[in-house]
Amino acid sequence: MNEILTAEHLNKYFHEPEDFQVLKDVSLSVKKGEFVSLIGKSGSGKSTLLYLLSTLDTDYEGTITINGTTVTGQTQNDLAKFRNENLGFVFQFHYLLPEFTVLQNVMMPARKLGKYGLREIEAKAIEKLKLMEMDAFAAKPSGKLSGGQQQRVAIARALINDPIIIMADEPTGNLDSLNAKIVFDIFDDLARNKGNTIITVTHDTDFARQADRIIELKDGRLLQ
Fold this sequence. Notes:
Blueprint: E1 3-14, E2 20-31, E3 35-39, H1 46-53, E4 61-66, E5 69-70, H2 76-86, E6 87-91, H3 102-113, H4 118-131, H5 147-159, E7 165-169, H6 177-194, E8 197-201, H7 205-209, E9 213-218, E10 221-222
Parallel strand pairs: 3-8, 3-9, 6-7, 7-8
Antiparallel strand pairs: 1-2, 1-4, 4-5, 9-10
Helix pairs in contact: 3-4, 3-5, 4-5
């Protein structure tokens, strides 16, 4: 497996209410098709690290390279385009628009990317929903789904632009154990059989333990 993401000597500071260094000389690499769990106690810096790796936070020292592209120092417009083409995001809360249908929610990132026509986007969205076993709900308003169903739709949405990396922040945080296992199995299948790289922050020790690798942070540093 080739390295798909590398981070070198990352340092991150918060300045409010006082100066505080939240990440301290963090270096890591992730391989293509690898399923990685970021763990650590609250305040360890794991979510901050994920937001740096995802290019959503650009205020840091160090260098991040994704799929051969150095994303550090790029403009916000260039990063937005890069994220939409290369990264998929799944959060603890699904962030679906409840008044829109499942299909419309899944199609949104592809419509924003503007790379495909509407019919092709719709076909791709149905394909991703089938992967999640949610295609039967395509015409249903997303606000009428259960929490577990909404999270599966959110994963389908994250996949619509065929990202090389899926980044997830506490994706099972609001789910019961059955739905948490479903989400894990989906991620595991995506990594093993579809070649997606999965990087997820989690407090769920059972979830983390089943990943290919655990990366643990403590007080802003990687534990070796």
